[in-house]
């Protein structure tokens, strides 16, 4: 492809990079490492943290980023997928990368890759690393896309690895049980470097990998603790350090655990931060689509990206912790490779009425197809709708003041809801 024939807009570039590899997902590091070497990419920042896990990655990164920026650090964050704009995937100093910056990065990749084909995610990862390398960052925080061991982000040797949680998801790629999935997630651990584990009981495969490599495994609930003090404050502590902090602005009990994991990750770096940075950062962290709340004439509408049973259990805990006077009405749309029945079962006690919606695109399914998979669940008799927007509008119209509408099931579901609820975002 000659320079003159290259795409001239970000939208065209995204269409182009979708077509450059025969498979949407093709796990492995050889291709992306070859191109990274041709581009001369080294460490993306003075320090780097690589974040993997089944759920909580995006929120944990939001806390890490906010705390580090409160300390005055220049921070780059690479996350996926995006909700509303591709630019969200690459943030430098709190700002999404511009179209021009991303296009320049894609051009640099084209200049270097030769005959090597790359997937969409591999292009995006290299673009982020290229932009980070130019930005003079104090810290880069990188989210694993799928698994860990063979994910493109794993070409980076993180100073700290984070594994938030391990549960069943992406079974076709990662395995059918927590031990197999843990093996894949543990691929981001590096020898003699700390790994932060967000749960007290991670799979033994994760711990075995850490011990084999001599990595210091630091476990939530065992080596560091997050404890509620009262309705306004909570405490983070380990053997030699403790903090009193405001509860996160991000809603749900799980967000305190995510904030605690972020604090542990930053403390594991060999660069101290002031106490005030932890306090300010936890209070300042924001991320779209995580129990994001809107009011519609006394009806609370919550939008969440949760899409697997573990995330649904956390959603159920959040709903239980914040009861409403009326009913909770769910709008659920999920991709076809997700455990939709497991998701519904996890929320069945907290939801009184269900609406199902269809999605379009790769791995999508119609509301009728989703409903057929939910036979025997609490959502078996749900009202089907062609689109998320139609289901949301119907649910809000039928709801009364004091009711709550929960829209969830995938990033696609959340994105469509947010475009309707907050069209200027």
Structure description:
This protein is 38% helix and 17% strand. It is built from 15 helices and 17 strands. The chain has helices at residues 10-18, 30-38, 57-70, 99-113, 120-135, 171-174, 178-185, 204-213, 254-268, 275-284, 309-321, 340-347, 367-373, 388-398, 411-421, and strands at 47-52, 75-78, 90-92, 95-96, 139-143, 160-163, 195-197, 217-219, 225-228, 233-237, 242-246, 292-296, 299-303, 328-332, 353-357, 383-385, 404-408. Strands 4-3-2-5-1-6-7-8 form an eight-stranded mixed beta sheet, with helices on both faces. Strands 12-13-17-14-15-16 form a six-stranded mixed beta sheet. The protein has a three-stranded antiparallel beta sheet with strand order 9-10-11. A hairpin with a 4-residue loop joins strand 10 (233-237) and strand 11. Helix 3 crosses helix 9 (254-268).
Shape by Cα distribution: globular
What's the total number of strands?
Answer: 17
Helix content: 25-40%
CA-to-CA gap between the ends? 35 Å
Strand order of the largest sheet: 4-3-2-5-1-6-7-8
Mean pLDDT across all residues, rounded?
Answer: 95
Output the radius of gyration: 21 Å
Strand-residue fraction? 15-25%
In DSSP terms, counting alpha (H) and pi (I) runs of 4 or more, how many helices?
15
Low-confidence stretches: none
Q: What class, by secondary structure content?
A: alpha/beta
């Amino acid at each position: 492809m000659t320079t003159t024939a290259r795409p001239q807009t970000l939208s065209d570039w995204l269409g182009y990079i979708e077509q450059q590899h025969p498979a949407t997902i093709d796990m492995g590091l050889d291709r992306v490492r070859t191109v990274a070497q041709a581009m001369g990419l080294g460490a993306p920042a003075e320090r780097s943290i690589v974040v993997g896990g089944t759920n909580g990655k995006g929120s944990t990164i939001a806390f890490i980023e906010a705390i580090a920026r409160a300390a005055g650090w220049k921070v780059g964050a690479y996350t996926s997928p995006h909700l509303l704009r591709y630019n969200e995937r690459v943030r430098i100093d709190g700002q999404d990368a511009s179209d021009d910056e991303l296009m320049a990065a894609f051009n640099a990749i084209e200049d270097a890759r030769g005959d090597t084909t790359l997937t969409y995610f591999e292009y995006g990862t290299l673009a982020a690393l290229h932009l980070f390398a130019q930005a003079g960052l104090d810290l880069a925080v990188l989210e694993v896309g799928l698994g860990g061991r063979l994910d493109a982000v794993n070409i980076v040797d993180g100073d700290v690895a984070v594994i938030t949680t391990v549960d069943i998801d992406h079974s076709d790629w990662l395995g059918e049980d927590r031990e197999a999935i843990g093996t894949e997630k543990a691929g981001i651990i590096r020898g003699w470097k700390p790994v932060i584990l967000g749960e007290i009981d991670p799979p033994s495969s994760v711990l075995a990998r850490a011990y084999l490599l001599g990595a210091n495994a630091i476990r939530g609930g065992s080596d560091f603790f997050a404890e509620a003090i009262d309705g306004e404050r909570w405490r983070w502590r380990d053997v030699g350090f403790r903090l009193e902090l405001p509860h996160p602005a991000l809603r749900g009990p799980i967000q305190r655990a995510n904030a605690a994991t972020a604090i542990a990750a930053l403390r594991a770096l060999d660069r101290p931060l002031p106490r005030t940075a932890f306090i300010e950062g936890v209070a300042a962290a924001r991320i779209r689509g995580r129990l994001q709340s809107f009011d519609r004439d006394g009806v609370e509408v919550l939008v969440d990206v949760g899409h697997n049973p573990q995330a649904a259990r956390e959603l159920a805990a959040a709903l239980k912790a914040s009861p409403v006077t009326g009913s909770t009405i769910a709008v659920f749309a999920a991709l076809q490779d997700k455990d939709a029945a497991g998701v519904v079962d996890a929320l069945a006690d907290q939801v009184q009425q269900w609406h199902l919606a269809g999605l379009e695109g790769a791995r999508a399914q119609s509301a009728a197809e989703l409903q057929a998979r939910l036979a025997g669940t609490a959502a078996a008799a749900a009202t089907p709708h062609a689109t998320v927007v139609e289901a949301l509008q119907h649910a809000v119209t039928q709801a009364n003041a004091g009711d709550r509408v929960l829209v969830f099931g995938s990033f696609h579901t959340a994105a469509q809801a947010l475009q309707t609820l907050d069209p200027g975002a």
